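Pipeline run #58 for the internal structure catalog. This entry was flagged by the ingest filter as a single-chain record with no existing model, so it goes straight to prediction. Upstream metadata was stripped on purpose; only the residue string is passed forward. Reviewer on rotation: M.T. Logging verbosity set to normal.
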Amino acid sequence: MPPRTRGGYTSSAPRRRPTGSERRRRVQLREVEPAADPDSVEHPQHDRDEHEEVFEGAPGGPIDRCILRSFDKHIAAKIWLGEDRAPLKLVNHGAKLQLWELDMERSRIYETVHRSGLASLTSCSHRVASRPMLSAFCERWQPETTTFHMPFGEMTITLDDVASILHIPVTGTMISFSQPLHVDDANALLVELLGTTDVDASRETEQCRSPSVRLLWLRDHFSTITDASSDDDVVFATRAFLLHLVGCTLFADKSATSVAVVYLELFRDLSMVDSYAWGAACLAYLYRQLTTGTRFEVRQLGGYVTLLQAWIYEHFPEMFSSPDMSYTESRPRALRWRPHVIPDSLQSVRERLDRLQISEVCWEPYEDHRAEHPFPDIAWYSGCIKCEQVVEPYHPERVLRQFGYIQTIPPRPFTPPRPDRSSLLVQYWERWTDHLLTDQSRGRRCLYSGSGESVPEYMAWYDRISHRIVQPPQLRSGSTTDARSSLPSHAASTSDTRIARALTSLRHVISGGRDQSADYFWGALNEAHDILSGPDETTASHSTPSPAPACHSTPSPATHPFFSPPTFVYPPPASVDPPPSSDDPPPLVVPPPPASFAPPAPTSDPSAPAPDSTASTTVYVRSKRKKKT
């Protein structure tokens, strides 16, 4: 081989003359890079010890970039700079699951699927998903904290949410693979575990251009196998059905047509399928898909959108949900709701979330579900969760209000280790009982269940490190100038507090099932009546407020184990008749009557003073249909 010259060309090839732009670029580089002074060069170890990265604030927040360090690439930052994108396309296979149903002719496959712990996924998937709603929540996801940054604090999908919404295992063996699967290894797995030929396996992976198979290919080859088939065929069909099931639900990727063959290894021993932590793997996979969806150039959202949509319905029932009145608590919580596409645009959903009040959140929605599905202790696990090569941090200390505790300022989020260190992650996960949040880290319980309390200094800290408002004020529909001046007031007036308490007491009646007794309905209505018709609370700062139920029954303060008199002070109640807003029409000024006009003589009280005929009367016109007086 001919020797190479300094420019990278061989001696036999003609040397290319540099262009004018390349020469100018070299001159600029020489001017920008001055010669280093040996006396001014510091020791590298000294630089690593004392050097601190400094991040400037972003428009609309955060002011302090110590937490959200990659916010410049976030979609919320682009929106404040005037750039926007359409609602994300969603990968939803709810309709495809009905193309492969297990009837009486496939009872042997159904029995194995029922023992696997994944049978609930066959019925709880939503066929319809709302793109504006899910896109608006994806814009509030922050990858560093793996939480949604709402106007009043952080929220996230916890392992308790996964267990209650889907009824799948959240404890067990971590779904982890040491190395990514090669195409040749994928072909070998298809031949061994599904009984296909080498030609069919190679043809399918070549068509997918990856170690994956199409969902349609699985249905065409294995959906016709019944109980009358051989035992080997039934086992092959069961593995194919489970692979098809997780590909349509837990691990739905952006191809929207295929599923990775690597998950087939988990179905090698069908008696061990229920020993895996499917819920933790699904949550890690959804975390990563939400993280990817925060980038401006991304146009599609993968993962199990039913889990995300049902979580929104559970925690924001008054804003987006439509309950199913025939639901019973023995079924997964995903079936509690009737999925629908909201008619609002993406911008209107953003503005609704920007104005969201803390009283509109259902912090503990599963209290009535505990009898059928107890709270999993692993939800307090603080560490990393893993799915294949995806590793994501899990921070319950950042969302203590979702567990009924007062939210404190959390520690800095930790950076997850590399996926190739799977052995350490597996060992850490297997000893999850040693990594639960301690009682000291959890702090104190909220005074009233579902109240969403936080320490006084939390909101000041959160306002500095977060991006609370997504829609910039200059792009808001009929809006004002300053975004921070339009933030919702978290110290609501006494009247607003009483109304919120009355609404939350009725929330369960509105969204509950028909199997509730009439006494339950009357009790909730009487409670709301007592709250609204109670005495004036102008002196509420000197008395103990009554408990405010969130989405379920609340123990009285006398019996509450952590009861103590509140230290906060309610502000005075707001005026009943506020002044007209900018959207109201101008006031109608009625001119005084002419001098020749004589008012009618009084009939009931002759001694009453006559009205002043020179005074003008101002009447605010609220609607065209109302009579002007």
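catalog note: The radius of gyration is 31 Å.
catalog note: The chain is about 30% helix and 5% strand.
status: ready for reviewer M.T.
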